[in-house]
Amino acid sequence: MQNHFDLVIIGGGPIGLNCAIEAKKARLNYIVIEKGVLVNSLYNFPTNMTFFSTSNLLEIGGVPFISHTDKPTRRESLEYFRRVQESWELNIQLYTTVERMTQESDLYQIETNKGWFIAKHVIVATGFYDTPRYLNVPGEKLPKVKHFYNDPHPYVGQKLIVIGAANSACDVALETYYKGAEVTMVIRESEIYPKVKYWIKPNIENRIKEGAIKAYFNSTVTEITEHEVHINTPEGPLTIENDFVLAMTGYKPNYALFEALGIDISENELKIPVHNTETLETNLHNVYVAGVINSGMQTSTLFIENTRVHSEMIIKAIQAKNPSLKSQ
Fold it and tell me: Pick from 26, 180, 243, 327: CA 20 to 30 A from residue 308's CA?
């Protein structure tokens, strides 16, 4: 019975950890299943990234988040959530990928690359940063095309194309430019995204205006080859020499996983997992969704700080339907 639980939490990010904390406080027998490292999404953030949120807005489980500045860095956040896991002695199994889920009677059988887990209740808290929005153009699978950015050093002295105009794209364009890359931006819209961080937006606009960073607005990449990139611009097709492409085109929830689990998705363009807004229960009985995935494709509306309440909402909903669990 070692693989039988009251609750299985899929996703070991900040909200998954918060769900585990609430489950432990409620004395539920739980396990967190994470396909990568602890807080895998945060680990994949750029090495030098600084959060937009202040440290106190990222705190969970009553563990203080102390950072050197008002806004913590990626390195500080990784250490913080490691301390959260250690402080609460959370039951987490890393490097475990969920492949599918089936239901038998009132139990769910979750198949992973490391065996089966059985539980009456399931929380899905997988975030969206692991799943890029692909360009779907020829050559996108070439090794020189990256959808995640870590560090500027590999691009020193290289001809670099950055696709996108939101926070990530502007951060990447500036950081690589300052480290010696020849940066060209390809931007689908007519301007830099208006909601880019207030300390970044004027900087990137000034670099474009002075010609230090070349930008093609109202333009799209149509094909990527080993040494070139083909672009469709308002003035017509254009081919430029290129060493690397950083496609900072955003991310989305893992809809393939939702399908494998059996969770319904709204039929409109938002593609939100179908759920009760008061309990966060999905179309599947006793299966819940938590965190930023509840916004579907609107990935800029939900964050750690405004989804921390999801864990308490879900555990209370579970206890309301299972009075016996309150006295465990």
Answer: 327
